[in-house]
From TrEMBL:
Family: Belongs to the OB-RGRP/VPS55 family.
Pfam family, one: Vps55
Record carries keyword Translocase: no
Membrane topology: Multi-pass membrane protein
The UniProt record lists the keyword Coiled coil: no
Entry's localization field: Membrane
Protein name according to UniProt: Vacuolar protein sorting-associated protein 55 homolog
């Protein structure tokens, strides 16, 4: 990235990126819990069921090449990964919307659930972008 910077400064920048990811994930968890606690309705926690399998296809099928997610590929495993990740993402949005349509949760809980989802997606995208240049990559 920036080879002319001293080593201690590069370590500080990497630590800042890791702290930013931790803050994003923590913010998403707080929004998820607040969507339930503020409205005294714990049904929105059903979206956690979809958050757990969301990264699993990425971890199992893609391996060490995360750039294959952003390109067109002929690999069946890469296509299966994209499909399963997309299905989990759609489920993460659909569950709170269905709960709102059924009258189980209110507009505030729906807004907090969707904002929690977008915070998690931002964290995952930042992680994938950071994984190409840092030592924090598992993919």
């Amino acid at each position: 990235m920036m080879p002319d910077l001293p080593g201690y400064l590069m370590t500080c920048l990497r630590t800042g990126k890791l702290a930013f990811l931790a803050i994003l994930v923590s913010g998403g968890i707080v929004l998820q819990i607040l969507a339930c606690a503020l409205y005294n309705n714990w049904w929105p926690m059903l979206t956690v069921i979809m958050y757990v399998p969301l990264p699993m296809p990425l971890l199992f099928f893609v391996g060490s090449d995360s750039s294959s997610l952003l390109t067109v590929s002929d690999s069946g495993w890469a296509n299966a990964t994209k499909f399963l990740t997309g299905a989990s993402a759609v489920g993460s949005i659909a569950i709170p919307v269905i709960l709102k349509h059924a009258g189980v949760i209110g507009w505030g809980a729906l807004a907090m659930e969707l904002s929690s989802f977008f915070v998690f997606v931002t964290a995952i995208m930042c992680y994938l972008g950071m994984g190409n240049e840092d030592d924090y990559s598992m993919l």
